[in-house]
Amino acid sequence: MRSTAISCLRYRDGPRAIDVLCRVLGFQAQLVVPGENGSIAHAQLVLGGGMVMLGSVGNGSEYGKLVRQPDEIGGFETQSVYVVVGDADAVLARAEVEGWTVVIPIRDEGYGGRGFSVRDHEGRLWNIGTYDPWSTHGDAGL
Predict the structure, then answer these.
(1) Which of 6, 62, 119, 142 could be 86's S-S partner, Cβ–Cβ 3.0 to 4.6 Å?
(2) Is 82 within a domain?
(3) Could you tell me the CATH number of the domain that includes residue 18?
(4) What is the pLDDT of residues 104-120, one digit of tens each?
(5) What digits encode the pLDDT tens for the residues 30-85?
């Protein structure tokens, strides 16, 4: 089943974001549309039945004018993405190698699964865990 709700993100360094999100979280670049001066006009990264779309900050899009980066609003986020993974501990290890900041330590959740929250290289908040809300058992089963 593919998700019909897709998060849209902006990054100052779009090409690096694509590289890092693929290496750390396991996304695969499905479509990358280059913009001017090495920016990303539009990218689609897929993982299982889910997807995030992203583009570079300042690429002149109408959407981009509506979005602020965490460093522009005191480090806060107004939304975040949850990614279902098969091994949260392994993803955490990759995130730490990349220098991401753990903001909620890894733990077993009372409702099932194991997860944590991190800020990536540009301060975006990501929630990672094995809890799969689509599964009747609550684990990723990936």
Answers:
(1) 142
(2) yes
(3) 3.30.720.120
(4) 999 999 889 999 999 99
(5) 999 999 999 999 999 999 999 999 999 986 778 888 889 999 999 998 889 999 99
What is the domain count for the chain? 2
Q: What is the DSSP letter of 139?
A: B
> 83 and 141 share a domain?
yes
- Report yes or no on 129 lying in a domain: yes
Q: Residue for token digits 């990723």?
A: 140
Among residues 3, 8, 4, which one has the least CA distance to residue 81? 8
- The answer to whether residue 16 is domain-embedded is yes
DSSP summary character for residue 64: G
Contacts 24+ apart (CB under 8 A), 58-63: 58/12, 59/14, 59/35, 63/8
Domain span at residue 107 reads: 76-142
What is the distance of C-alpha 66 from the center of its chain? Answer: 19
Decide: pTM greater than 0.85. Answer: yes
Neighbours of 39 (CB within 10 A): 18
